[in-house]
Amino acid sequence: MTLYRLHHTTVYDYTGAAVVLGTHFLHLLPRERPGQTVLAARLDISPIPDSRRDEVDHFGNLTTTVSITGAHREFRVAMSATVEVGQSALPTATPAWEEIAARSIDDVDLVEFCLPSALAAPDGEIAAYAAASFPAGRPILEALLDLGGRLHADMTYEPGATGSSTTASQAFAGRRGVCQDYAHLMVACFRAVRLPARYVSGYLRTQPPPGQEKLRGADQSHAWISAWAGPEAGWIDFDPTNRLLVRDEHVTLAWGRDFHDVSPLRGVIVGGGRHTVRVHVDLDPLLPPL
What pTM did the predictor assign? Predict the structure, then answer.
């Protein structure tokens, strides 16, 4: 069990004309989930919005919609939270992947994660690549670990090689990208064999424990996948960028079918001209893990 203090600040600087109207949609408050308890969380927004609406979306994520009508040259959102993370033990055995696929396609809560989405749709090359990790009768957890290991070995982590709208097919064709691309590709591989997998956004511990290397994706928003392993094992999270099963070093923000469902901040503005974006993230333990 680890208790974390989380800070995420995003600042838009409008270097041209002032923005005179802005409406923004945020996924920036961490959600509850098995193994994660949010003890406190708040958003500080500047300028102070004229209106704010906090809701829960289709996937159970916390969303915030704000509107600002006064002229401004900076838009700042600062999230702070205290989160307790303590994942349960992994299962010693899981069902064969075919059993999971057969049950999931008729389950209303799972089927949408089996189907293609805009950024995580399998094509023929992805399907052929995925098939090697799913021989007949293989347990789902064993298949997940094999696929994640292959992706980690075959992809090159290269910031700037892709963008927020890059699809799984495009990232696979170039064999390079960042955590978003690794996650989209692994999700697409699962969907190629009709297995439910969801895209997860969140954060990595900023500084590793003594003696361990810093993980890729720390100091910023991160992404990984969650695969359904049956009613007893539930959802199992895997970080393909770092080739590891998610335990207590990750904090979940939101999940959906792909990045489009969980974009941290998007919106519409009137005015503004050019702009720059600054993002700063810290996820640090408050106490040593229990």
Answer: 0.94
